[in-house]
Amino acid sequence: MRVRYWLAASSVVLLAGSPIACAPVLTPPPGFVEVEGSSYTFRASTADGLVLAVREIEHEPKGDLEFWGRAIENELRLDRGYALLATRDVKTNKGIVGRQLRFGHDEDARPHLYWVSVFVTDGYLYVVEAGGTKEQVEANEATLMSATAALDTR
Amino acid sequence: MVEEGSVGYEFEAPAAPPAAPMPGDGYADGLFLSSAAGPGAERDEFLADAAPGLEPEATTGNAAGGEAVSELVRQPLLIYRATLVLAVFEVKKALDGVEELARELGGYLLRRDDETVTIRVPAAKFDSGLTAAAALGDEVSRHISAEDVSEQYRDLTIRLKNAEVVRDRLQALLAQAKDVKEALLVEEQLGRITGTIEQIKGRLKVLDELIAFSTITVTVQARTTATEKLQRRVTLPFPWLRQLGLSNLLDLESE
Predict the structure, then answer these.
(1) Looking at chain A, which residue has its C-alpha nearest residue B252?
(2) Is residue B29 helix, strand or coil?
(3) How far apart are CA B120 and CA B105, in angstroms?
(4) Cross-chain Cβ contact B252/A51 below 8 Å
(5) How large is the average pLDDT for residues B141-154?
(6) Mean pLDDT of all residues in chain B?
(7) Cα B104 to Cα A90: distance, rounded to the nearest angstrom
(8) Which of residues 64-123 of A touch B (CB under 8 A)?
(9) Do A107 and B246 touch (CB under 8 A)?
(10) Residue A108 confidence (pLDDT)
(11) Span B195-221, mean pLDDT?
C-alpha cells in the first residue's frame, strides 16, 4: 500500500512542469507517421524528414498570447539567429486563437523553414512546431496549416 | 649658400595654422560629399589656390591663425561606418545580395567570408545602402558611427603645402649650389622632404577614400555567437523555450 502511494506521488512529481504526454493532441496528417520516444507531446514525420510536433505545457505562470509569442520570438530571433519571416494569427478548429511565427534558418548550409504556433488556454500552453527544408515546408503548407488547426486542446 | 642646418624642418613642426588667411571658401563650400569631381580634385584645387606666400616660418601658431583656419573647414569631413547584424535565412543569398548592392550603388566589395561581408559605397548613398542591406535579412542590430576627420585633414593639408614650399626652395638652392658638397647637402634635404610629401599625400589619399566611400559591414550568422553576445537579455525561466529549434525538432532519434 505504501509502495503504491509512493509510485503515484513520484509520477506526479515527474510530470509537473514538463510537456505532458497523455491524451492525443493531434493525429498524424496524411503522409506522416508518429514518432514516439521524445520530449514532445506529439511528433510525426514524413519519410523525407518534414516534421510536425506539439508540446503541451502546463500554463503556469499565466501569460497571454502576446507574452508567449514574444518570448518565443526573442528566444529564436535574438538568441539563436533565426530570421523572422512572418507573423500571423491562426485559429484551431475549436476556435482557440493562436499566434504563428514563421522563421527561416540555415541548417548545414541549407535553407530551412520553421513555423512555431502557440495557443493559450487556461490550463495549458500548446506549441506546435513544423520544420523542414524550405522546399518541403512550402510544398506542404496546406497540410501543415490544416494539421495545426486540428490541434485538440483540453 | 647653404649652411648645414639652415634648411630647416619647420614643416615638421606640429601643424600650426598659417598667419595669413587661407583661401578656404571654395574648399569648404564644395566639400567632398557634394563634389562630383571627388575629394582628391577638391584638395588639388585647394592646394593650387593656396596662399603662394605661405612660408615654413609661418607655421608657428598664433590665435589669429587658428581662427583663420577654423574658417577653412566649415563642414565636417566625416567617415561613415555601419555594422548590421542580421538574423539570417539563406546565408549565401544574403551575402550575395550585399555584394550585388555594392555594385549597384557604384561601390565595391572590400572583404567577404562565410558570415560577414564588408562593402564600400559612395558616401552620398550611405543611407540608401544601409536601408537596402538591412532589407536583405531580419535586422537584429545596427551600429552607425561618423568619425570627424576635419582637423586631421586640415593639418595634413597644411603640412603638405608647407613641405612643398620648402621643396621648391631646396630645388632653387640646388640650382644655385656652388660646389658638390653644397649640392649633396641640399639633395639630402630634398630627398627627406620629398619622402615626407609622399607620405602626407598617401595619408590624404587614404582619408579621401574613406570620406568618399562609406563602409558597411553586414554580419549574417545562422548559428551565432555574435548575436548572442550582442543581444543577450534576461533569460526567462521556462526551459522549454531553450528546447525550441530545428535541431531538436528534426533529430528524430532523440529520446
Answers:
(1) A35
(2) helix
(3) 9
(4) yes
(5) 93
(6) 74
(7) 40
(8) 71-72, 74-85, 103-107, 109, 111-112, 114, 116
(9) yes
(10) 81
(11) 93
